[in-house]
Amino acid sequence: MIPIYTLVLFLLTLINLTDTASYKPPMIDESVFRTRNIYYKEEESIEIPCAAEGHPTPVYSWIKDGEELDLESEEVNGRMSLISGVGTLRIKPAHGSDEGVYQCQARNAHGTSLSVRVNVLQARMDPFKTVEDPEILRPLLAHSLKLSCGPPVSVPPAKISWIIDQKVDEGDYDTDYESENQDLFDFVDLDDRVTMDYAGNLYITNVKPEDAQDGNKYVCFSNNEQLRSFGKGEDKIIEPLGNTAKMRDSNMPVEMLWHSDTDVMGLVGKTVRFKCIFSGNPQPRITWKRMEGLAFDNNRMKQSSEKFEFVIKKVQYGDAGEYECSGFNGITRNPIRHRFRLIVEAKPRWTKKPQDIEAGVKEDATFLCEGKGSPEPKVQWFINGKPIEQAANITRRTYRKGQLTFTDLQKMDSQVIQCNVSNKHGFLWADVYLNVLAIPAAVKAGPEPLLKVAEEKSVTIKCQTAGKPTPVVTWFKGDQPLSGGRYKILPIGDLVIAGVRKKDSGNYRCFARNLFGKDQANGTLVVREKTRISQEPNNVQSVNGNDAVFRCRAFTDPNEQHRLRYTWLRNGQPLIIDNDRVIQQSEELIIKDSMSQDTGNYTCIASNGLDEDRAWATLKVKAPPDPPTNVTLLECLARQATIIWVFDQSQDNFSPLQNFIMEYNTSYAPDHWKVASRPNANARRAEVELSPFAHYNFRVRAVNRIGKGEPSVHNQLICQTPVARPDHHPEGVKTVGDKTNYLVVEWEPMEEIDLNADGFYYNVTVQREGEDTVDSYIIDDFTVSRKEIPVDTVYKPYIVTVQAKNQVGEPLKNADSIIGYSGQARPLVAPENFELDPEKNVTATSAGFQWDPVNDDPDVIQGVFKGYKIRIWKKDQRESTTKEIFIPHTPNADGTRQRRQTQKIKAEVPNLASYSDLEADVVTTNEFFTSVNGSNIVNFSTPEGVPSKVRYFEAVNVGSTHFTLHWGEPKEKNGIITGYDLGYQRVNGIMYEETKIAEKVDSRTRRTYLGGLEPGTNYRLYLWGRTQQGRGAAYFIDVKTAEKGIPLAKPRILEILPRPDSANVTWELPHVKGQRVGAKYFIDYRKYGLDSWNTHPEHATMNTWQVLENLESGMTYEIRIVAKSGQKGDADFAQMASEKRTFKTGGVGMNTSKPTAPTSIVYSINYKPWFVGYLAASSSILSAGWFIGMMVAIAILLLILIIVCIVKRNRGDKYHVQEKERLRGSNPEDVENFNELNKSDTNGIGQSNSFDNNPEKMPLGDETDSMEEYGDVDPAKFNEDGSFIGEYGGQKGVGDQQASTMATLV
C-alpha cells in the first residue's frame, strides 16, 4: 500500500509541474512600432501603440524622457489613458508639452519587457519673412542668375520648390496632396539649365527670354506634408536684358555657381548626393568621374537627368574616396572642376541577435548580443528594464561585452533581458525572455512504423522529445543498446546509422528520461539494394544547329524497380524538359538544334525514391561566341572614347576567336547601332571617334569561325560629348532647273549628329554672275535640303554658297561656292520636216523617222539641250494612248556646240501596236521641259502581227486521262485571231519530253477537251493565239492528271427544263479533295415506275448540260447523270451516278391532275445554256395555240424589218462613208488614203486595251455591221452547242460576220 505522504508529494509535484509549464515572462510585440517618429498637431489625438504577450497577463506603464508617467496625476488631467486590452497610450487632446521620448513597459511576476523608444514631435512650420514689393531682377541674356529662398523652420522638414505664382492662398488644404494639389501650382521645371541647391535657392545658369514668364512672379514654395500646409516666400520678377538675335553669339565661359559640401558622410545602405552648378553659354557639358581611375558601379551610381547631381544609392564601404565634377563648353581651354571626398560609416547592424530561451531547471542558458558598425558600436545589457549593473548580484550569472550566461537555473530565474547596441549613427534594441521550466520527458515524434532505406546510405530514425530539463535519449535494436561506431544519437534524440547494411533491418526503440518523467516509442527499418548506373552518358561535341543525344541506364532493388526514374541536370540545375527542343525518351536525353546555351555539364540521376546514382557527361556546342561582359566606358573625351570589356576563352564556344565588333548608338538614333571598329581577337579595349554634342552608348560583339555572336549589354554610364562648331558645310550643293523663274538650290542635308550644338542653321547666299548684290537666306531646319528663290531670269548663272552654323560658330574651313543656273523653261524651237524614214520599212512593231535638227543655243532651248521626244498615239485616241520615246542629243566629239546641223536626225521606234492606224510628232527637250509646239504630224499604219499571250489559261476539270481547258482571248490581238494552237509535253522529274500539238482550235472557241493522257502524270500545257502572221507568245501551265484509283466525283443535277417531247438537263461537277472527274457523262432515263434504264446515245465531255430528246408528252420520267472514265474491262474503268431526279414532260392533253410521282425539280444556277430563258416558261404555255401563233407573227415582222434595213443600207453606202470621212477631216477623193481606211481593224475593236476601237473602220458592205447599229443580237455570242459564251466569244472576221447575218435571217 502506497503511504499517504508519498501520494501527497506526487500530487504537489504534478501541480507544481503544471503551473511551471503555463507561466511566461512578458514580451512586447515590436512589429506594432512602425515608425520611431510620431508627429501631431496641437489639440489633435495621439496614439502610441504597445502590445505584449505573457502569463500572467502583463501590466502596462509608460516612461517619458526617462521618468515613469503617472496617468492619474493632475498634470495629466485625464488626457492620457491606455486603450483597453493593450498597452497603447492615447493622448487627447495633445498639447505642446507632450513632446518627448516615450517607452512602453509590460510587467508580470516573471519580468519586465521594454519597447524601443519613440520620438513624439509637434508638427509646425513658421511663415516666410513678409515683403511688401516683389524683387525685380534684370540679368543679361546668356548670363547666370540666382534666386534666394530662405525657407522657414519646419517640423518635419518642408519640401522646397519654386512656382510661377498663381492666386492660391496660403494655409491648409484638404485635397489629396499627390494628385489634385499638384495641379493648383505652376511648378518651375528643373532641367540642365534651371536647378536648385540643397538650401532651396534657384539657379538659372543661362538666362533666356522665356525666363521672363510673361511678367509672372517666381515664388519659393515650402510644403509641410504632415501639416498638409504650404507657405510662399518673396515674389521675384525676372526682366532679361539684351538682344535676343545676338544671344547665340554671346559666348560666356564656364563658371562654378555652387557646389554641395566637399566632405560628405555617407552611411552604408543609404543614399549620398553631390551637386555642382555650372553656368555658361553655350550650356556647359557636365561630367562626373571617380578619382584614381576607379570605375563607377553603374547599377548604383548615376548622373541625374539634369546632369548637375551625382547620386550613389545603397552606399558601400568601397565607395569611399574622391569624386570630381567638371564643366566645359568649348569657350575656355580647360574645364572647371571641383572635387568631393566621401567618408563611409555605418549604423549598427546585428551579427548575433539575442533570442528567447526556454530552459529547464538545473540547465544553463547563454544570450549573445553582437553588432557591427562604424564607429565600433557599444553593447549594454538590461535586466527587467534596468541596467545590469543595477540588478541583484547573482553568482550564477556572468556577463561580458556580448555574452550573458546563467548556470544551474532555478524557477525563480525567469526574467526579461534587454540588449542595446549603439554608436553615434543609431542603435539596435532587443527585448528577449528567459523562461525556466520543469516538464516531464515525452516522445513527441517517434520512429516511423516502417522506414525503408537503400544500403550504404546513412539513415536517421526520428525520436523528437520534449521536456525540461532536456530528456536523455537512449536507443535499442530489439533489446540491444546502441551506441558508438556507426550509431550516433543527436542532441534532439534522433538516431543516425552510417553506411546502412542489409543486416541493419529490424525493430528500433527510443527511450527518453529526465528528472520528472520518461517515455518511449519504436518502429521498423527495411534496407534495400543500392541503385547503380550501368551505362553512363558519353561526352558529346556538337555543331550549332545539330542534335545532341545522351544515353543513361541503371538498375535497382527488384522490389523498387517500378519506381526507378531518370532526371537530368545541366550545370547542377534541373533541366527543363519542354518536349519541343529538349526531349527525354526513357533512357535518352535529346537536345534538338543545339546552341551555345546548351554547352555545359549534364548529370543523369537514376532514383527510386530511396536512393540515387549519378553520372556526368559534357556537351560542347561549337557556336557563335557569347557576348562580351562588363563593357565599361573608361574615358569619354570631346572627340574620342575608350571602352574596355571582358571576354575569356570559355566564351568562344569552342571555335577560335577571329575579332570583335565595336558598335555604338547615339541619342539621335537610339535604335540604330553602327560599327565603329573591328578590334583583333587579343584586344580588350578600343578607341572610338566621337562627334560633339551627342550621347553615346557602346556595345561589343565577338566573331569566331562559326559566325557573329549576340551583342553585349551596352555600357551603363552614357558618354556625353560637349558642343562645338560644325565640322563641315553641307555637301552636294547644286542648282536644279525644274522650276521656271526660280533659282532652286539643293544640297545634302546634314545628319543630326553633325550639328554639334544647338542653334544650328543653313546660310544660303546667292549672287548673279556679273553683279555685286548678294542675298542671304537663313534656314533653321537641318532636315531641309532645298531653297526656292524667286528670280526674273531663265537659265542664267549665279554664284551660290551654302554654309553651316550653330551657336558656337561655323566650320574652320570656308564653304565652297558653285556656279548654278536659274530655272529652265520650255524650248522655243520645234523640229521641222518630220517624216517616215524612207530607208526603213514600217513593220508590225516598229517604224523609222527623220527630221531636221534644231538650233541648240541655250537662249532658244531655255536650258540644257538634251535631245528630242517622239510622241506616238493611236488615231483619235491621243490622250489615252500616247507614249513618248526619248532620242538623246549626241554632242560633237570635241565638245563644241554646232549652231545648225545639216544632216537629218534619224531614229527607229520599237514596240508599236500592230495592225493600227497611228500618228506621231517630235518635240525638242531640255533637262525638264519640252518645246511649246511639236513638229508636223505624221500618219501611218502598222501591218498585222502576232498576238500576245492569252489573258488566262486553266484546267477547269482534271480527270485521270483528260483535262477540260478554258482560256481568255489574247490581251493584244495585233491582228485578226484565226485560231489557237494547243500543245502539251509530258514532265518526267526535271526532264520535259517532246512537245506535241494536240489540236488547232478555231478563233471562237475558248474551251476544249484534251484526252488520251496517262493517269497520275505531270504535263506542261501550252496555248498560242494565231493570226495570219503566225503564232503569238505561249501561255503554259503545269497540271497533273488524277491517279486512276481515286474515286470519281458524283455529278449533281442542278436543273431540269421539260418540253413536250424533250428536256434540257444541267448538272455540276463538285470539286471534292481526293476525287477526280469523269471523262464522259451520259444521261440515263426511264419512265417512272420502270426498272431498266435507257442511256441517251450522245455523251458530254466539256459541257455540263444536254438535251434529252424523243420523250413522250405528259409523261413522268426519272433521270440520273453517269460519269465514266475508261472503257469497260479496262483496269482503270470507273463510273459514278448522280442522285435520281424526276420530272414530267408538257404538251397538249397532258394530265393536269395531281401526279402520283414527284413533280419537276428546278434548281437555279449561275451558268446556263443559251436557251434556258426561252425554255423557262411553263410547259402549258409553250404548247398553247395562241402562243405559237403569236411567235409566228413576230417572226414575220422581224423578217420584214431586216429586209428594209438591208435595202436602205445598200442604197446609202457610198454617201454614208463619204460623209463620215468629211466629218473626220479626210478627203474621200484621196484614193490612197481611202484604201487605208478600208483596212479591217478587227483586232481589239471596242476593247480598252486595243490601239483602235473606232467601229467605222470596219469594211464597208458588212451586213452584220449594219445590224449592230440597229441593236440586233450578235449571233457570235452563242457557241455551236447553244451555250452563252459571253466574254469568251471571239471577234469576227468579214466572212464570219456575213455567215452570222445569214444565220439570223434564217
UniProtKB/TrEMBL annotation:
It is a single-pass type I membrane protein. Residues 1-20 form the signal peptide. One of its GO terms (molecular function) is cell-cell adhesion mediator activity. Its main location: membrane. The chain crosses the membrane at residues 1184-1207. It is found in: Membrane. Residues 624-724, 726-825, 946-1045, 1047-1148 form the Fibronectin type-III domain. It comes from the Eukaryota. Residues 26-115, 127-239, 253-325, 348-435, 440-528, 531-620 form the Ig-like domain. Residues 1226-1273 are annotated as: Disordered. Gene3D superfamilies: Immunoglobulins. InterPro entries: FN3_dom, FN3_sf, Ig-like_dom, Ig-like_dom_sf, Ig-like_fold, Ig_I-set, Ig_sub, Ig_sub2. Residues 1262-1272 have a biased composition (Acidic residues). Residues 1235-1253 have a biased composition (Polar residues). Keywords: Cell adhesion, Disulfide bond, Glycoprotein, Immunoglobulin domain, Membrane, Repeat, Signal, Transmembrane, Transmembrane helix. GO terms for biological process: axon guidance; brain development. PANTHER family: CONTACTIN (PTHR44170:SF6), PROTEIN SIDEKICK (PTHR44170). This is Neuroglian. It comes from Lottia gigantea (Giant owl limpet). The lineage of its organism: Eukaryota, Metazoa, Spiralia, Lophotrochozoa, Mollusca.
